[in-house]
Amino acid sequence: MRLFAGADFLKGFFKVLTFYLSIIEDESDRLFFERIYNLYADDIFRRVYGILKNMHDAEDAVQDTWQKIYEHIAKLKPMNERVRRAYIMSIAKNQSLTILRKRKKEENILCDIDTADVAEEGDVFASCEGEDIAFIVACMQKLDERYSDILVYYYLHNHSLKEIAKMMGLSVNTVGSRLARGRQKLIEMLERRNTDG
Asked: Is the separation of the CB atoms in 61 and 44 below 8 Å?
């Protein structure tokens, strides 16, 4: 079911809210969804449009994002606001990148094998072991955006260095360098938490 109607994008925003409020049975869930919608609808649109640069695809990504939020209400409710926002924006990015991948497949764009250092990969996964995904995403979001975006694209959405470079308008070498620096910063952040805990 398509909730948006082409150029009538703002009306589509309202239709999304009305639709989900009509199907959520629990009153507290309805109030929570409405609050989340009012807080993040604009941010979600800006994030997906910033990635897709296409209104038609952005409409699809926004709709898919709210569907995921609806499906994960129980998981989102106990989160603190900062972690919740990071998680929601990660969903928005994920839905956008899924559409971007489909678009790239249609254009027959092939991915090259990444050249990231295998030892550092092991360090990241060792540091993340036992941590909640929402916390890891929140840690990524705390980093400078030039690192956090690349980490999210690479680890959460499985994009290659070449794909990320093309999406962000950077050279593959620059992406690789920022990935290595961001990865090290993420490891240090996670290790500090484990030490403090």
From this structure: no
- pTM of the predicted model, to two decimals? 0.52
In the chain, residues under CATH classification 1.10.1740 are 1-109
Angstrom distance (rounded) from CA 20 to CA 157: 27
DSSP state of 143: S
Q: Could you report the per-residue pLDDT of 33-76, keeping only the tens digit for each? A: 999 999 998 889 888 888 888 888 888 899 899 999 999 999 89
Residue carrying the six token digits 């694209």: 153
CA–CA gap between residue 127 and residue 154 (Å, rounded): 16
Contact 175, 161 (CB under 8 A): yes
Q: CATH homologous superfamily of domain 112-197?
A: PhyR, sigma-like (SL) domain (1.20.140.160)
Topology of the domain covering 1-109: Rna Polymerase Sigma Factor; Chain: A (1.10.1740)
